[in-house]
C-alpha cells in the first residue's frame, strides 16, 4: 500500500510540473506559416503611445492628424475597428503587438514577456545578425521587448535595442531623438524589422497637460509623415517596405484623459494605419481586429513561421499576388 502511495505521489508531482510555464513552453509548437509571397522585404512598426481614438481618427476634421489622414491613408488602409483587448498599459500593449499574445505583466519594466517576439522568430528563421531587427523607443522600459522568459530556441535570438537615454533604467528621451536615431540605424544597418515608440502624447497626458497632449499628437503625426517620406526616398527601403502605425493603448474618455488602464471604450479603441506594396490601397475593413494580429501579419509579410497564439494574420488587408497571364 505504501509503495502504491509513493507511485501515486510521483504521478501527481509529474502532472503538476507539466502545468508549469517552463514545461508548457517546451511542448511542441503549432506553427503558423505564410500563405503566399509578398513584395514586402522590410517592416517598420511605429507605435504612437497613449493616443485616444476620439482625439484623432474619431474626429472627422482630423485636426490633429492631417498628414496621416489626408496624405498617408489614401496611399494605404486605415482600420477603424482596431482594439487593445488586453491590459491597456504601455508594456502589455507593446508585448501584445510584438508577441501576438496578451500578457498581464507589470508596466514598469520589471517583468519580461513570456513568449519570444516576432523579432526573435525573424532572426531565428533567417539567421540574420541582431542588427537586422531593432527596438528603438523613447521609453527605456521597452527594452524588455528584446527579452523573454521562454525556453524556446527562438529566445536565443535577441534583437538590437536603442531605448531611452541609454537603455533600461536610464529614463525617457525626447521623441525627436528617437526619430533621428531610427533613421540613423536604418541608414547604417538597413534592418529588415524595426519598432519605433513615440512617448510624448502619453507623457503629456499623464502630466495633465491637455494642450501639451494635443500638440504631441500633432507632432507625432508629423513624425509619421516624415518617416514615410524618408522610407519612400531611401533606395533600400523605397517600394519594398510596409509601415504599420498603431497605438499601445488609448485613454479614459471625457476629462479623465490623464489616465488609462481598463477596458473602457477610450482605453481599448486604438487605430491602425498600414502602407506598403502589398496593402490593399483604399480598402475599407469591416472585420474587427486587435493588437495580437500584428505580429502574425508581420511574419506573413516577411515570410517566416511563428507559433499560433492569440493572433492571426490580417490577410483581408493584403493583396493577392498578380497571376501570370
From TrEMBL:
Q: Per the database record, which ranges form the Sulfatase N-terminal domain? A: 42-303
Q: Name the domain of life.
A: Bacteria
Pfam families, alphabetized? Sulfatase
Q: Which family does it belong to?
A: Belongs to the sulfatase family.
Protein's UniProt name:
Sulfatase N-terminal domain-containing protein
- Which source organism does the UniProt entry give? Nibribacter koreensis
Record lineage: Bacteria, Pseudomonadati, Bacteroidota, Cytophagia, Cytophagales
Amino acid at each position: 500500500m505504501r509503495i502504491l502511495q509513493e507511485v501515486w505521489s510521483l504521478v501527481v508531482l509529474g502532472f503538476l510540473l507539466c502545468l508549469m510555464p517552463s514545461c508548457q513552453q517546451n511542448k511542441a509548437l503549432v506553427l503558423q506559416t505564410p500563405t503566399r509571397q509578398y513584395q514586402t522585404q522590410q517592416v517598420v512598426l511605429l507605435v504612437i503611445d497613449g493616443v485616444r481614438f476620439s482625439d484623432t481618427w474619431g474626429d472627422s476634421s482630423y485636426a490633429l492628424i492631417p498628414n496621416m489622414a489626408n496624405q498617408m491613408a489614401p496611399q494605404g488602409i486605415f482600420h477603424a475597428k482596431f482594439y487593445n483587448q488586453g491590459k491597456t498599459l504601455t508594456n502589455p500593449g507593446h508585448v501584445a503587438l510584438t508577441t501576438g499574445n496578451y500578457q498581464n505583466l507589470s508596466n514598469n519594466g520589471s517583468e519580461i514577456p513570456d513568449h519570444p517576439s516576432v523579432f526573435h522568430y525573424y532572426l531565428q528563421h533567417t539567421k540574420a545578425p541582431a542588427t537586422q531587427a531593432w527596438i528603438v523607443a523613447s521609453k527605456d522600459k521597452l527594452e524588455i521587448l528584446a527579452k523573454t522568459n521562454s525556453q524556446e530556441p527562438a529566445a536565443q535570438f535577441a534583437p538590437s535595442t536603442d531605448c531611452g537615454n541609454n537603455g533600461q533604467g536610464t529614463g525617457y528621451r525626447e521623441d525627436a531623438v528617437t526619430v533621428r536615431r531610427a533613421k540613423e540605424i536604418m541608414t547604417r544597418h538597413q534592418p529588415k524589422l524595426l519598432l519605433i515608440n513615440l512617448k510624448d502624447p502619453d507623457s503629456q497626458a499623464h502630466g495633465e497637460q491637455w494642450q501639451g497632449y494635443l500638440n504631441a499628437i500633432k507632432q507625432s503625426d508629423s513624425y509619421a509623415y516624415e518617416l514615410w517620406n524618408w522610407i519612400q526616398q531611401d533606395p533600400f527601403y523605397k517600394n519594398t517596405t510596409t509601415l504599420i502605425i498603431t497605438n499601445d493603448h488609448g485613454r479614459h474618455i471625457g476629462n479623465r484623459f490623464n489616465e488609462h488602464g481598463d477596458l473602457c471604450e477610450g482605453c481599448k479603441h486604438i487605430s491602425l494605419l498600414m502602407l506598403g506594396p502589398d496593402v490593399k490601397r483604399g480598402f475599407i475593413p469591416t472585420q474587427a481586429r486587435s493588437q495580437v494580429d500584428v505580429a502574425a501579419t508581420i511574419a506573413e509579410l516577411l515570410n517566416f513561421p511563428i507559433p499560433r497564439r492569440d493572433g492571426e494574420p490580417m490577410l483581408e488587408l493584403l493583396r493577392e499576388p498578380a497571376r501570370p497571364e
